[in-house]
Specification:
By secondary structure, the protein is an alpha/beta fold. The chain has a domain at 10-163 and 190-217 and 269-277: 3-Layer(aba) Sandwich (Rossmann fold). It contains 11 helices and 9 strands. A 7-stranded mixed beta sheet has the order 3-2-1-4-5-9-6, sandwiched between helices. Helix 6 links the parallel strand 4 (121-128) and strand 5.
């Protein structure tokens, strides 16, 4: 649901910190039904050793740890990882999580060493299928993670559901229209039916079931919705092609049909997950 802009000067780092905080406090919780459905289906518990790819600010890992799982996570966003460490490391919250928790800025291999037991579950909860080329980096991560997992271990991929089942699709079209000159640089596109299966097969994984989960996006007001959606990174190409003020204005206008009488914003969405197996 996001992409990471490059680190640049100190001003942009401040913006990235603010965006990471918006993701953690506003947007990340929208995918909680997805996390819960997957963990329930796969019976995540004390015997689970979970590796989260693109773990972000760690909410999915925290939910796994609350079920008793040993969790590790990797991501490329230093700002989000800092928030994940605040949530997950035992030194931050007493004995809230197990001492073998690892939160790593790097590759799947950086989260394990020769003494690390094989993972029994790998998750890639960041939804793919809405940005041109958004699955390319994931394929490499999956190939790197596969040798670290048990044979036949489940690997979970997530993606946006059909556009007609996702109210947010109409809002995301703002990103496509504004970013038109840079479309190849990562603007939004409608999810395709076989996005997840294609990624799994390219990574040498065998599909073994799937499901759909209702994940409505709900916000306190339009301002909160704008901040939350911008934190996904899906509007970065639009900001580059135009400017921040233009994107903020048109995004707010696109949200008006979903604003209710109490000023809250509500957009029903369906997300899809695929369970694949390591060879």
């Amino acid at each position: 649901m996001r992409q990471h802009p490059p680190h640049a000067d100190e001003t942009s780092r401040v913006d990235l910190c603010a965006r990471a905080r918006d993701w953690s406090e506003i947007q990340e919780r929208m995918l909680v039904p997805l996390y819960e459905a997957v963990y329930e289906r796969l019976e995540v518990g004390p015997g689970t050793r979970l590796l989260g790819l693109g773990c972000g600010s760690g909410l999915a890992l925290l939910m796994g740890a609350a079920r008793g799982a040993a969790v590790s996570g990797v991501d490329s966003s230093r700002e989000r990882l800092a928030l994940a460490r605040e949530r997950l490391l035992p030194t931050a919250w007493g004995a809230r999580t197990r001492g073998d928790t690892r939160i790593v800025d790097g590759t799947p291999g950086d989260a394990a060493d020769a003494e690390t037991p094989a993972y029994t579950l790998v998750t890639a909860f960041e939804p793919i299928g809405c940005l041109a080329g958004d699955s390319e980096g994931l394929g490499g991560q999956l190939r790197a993670a596969t040798p670290l997992a048990e044979r036949g271990a489940p690997v979970v991929l997530a993606g946006w559901g059909p556009p007609e089942r996702c109210a947010t699709s109409s809002v995301l079209r703002v990103a496509t229209r504004l970013a038109d000159p840079l479309r190849s640089a990562g603007s939004w596109r409608p999810a395709l039916r076989d996005d997840l299966e294609e990624v799994a097969q390219r990574a040498g994984l065998k599909p073994d079931g799937s499901g759909r989960v209702s994940c409505p996006f709900g916000y306190a007001d339009v301002e909160s919705a704008v901040r939350g959606l911008l934190s996904t990174g899906l509007f970065d190409a639009a900001i580059t092609a135009t400017d921040q003020a233009q994107v903020d204005k048109e995004l707010a206008e696109a949200l008006h049909p979903y604003q209710r009488r109490d000023r809250t914003v509500w957009m029903p969405n369906v997300f899809r997950y695929l369970i694949a197996r390591t060879p």
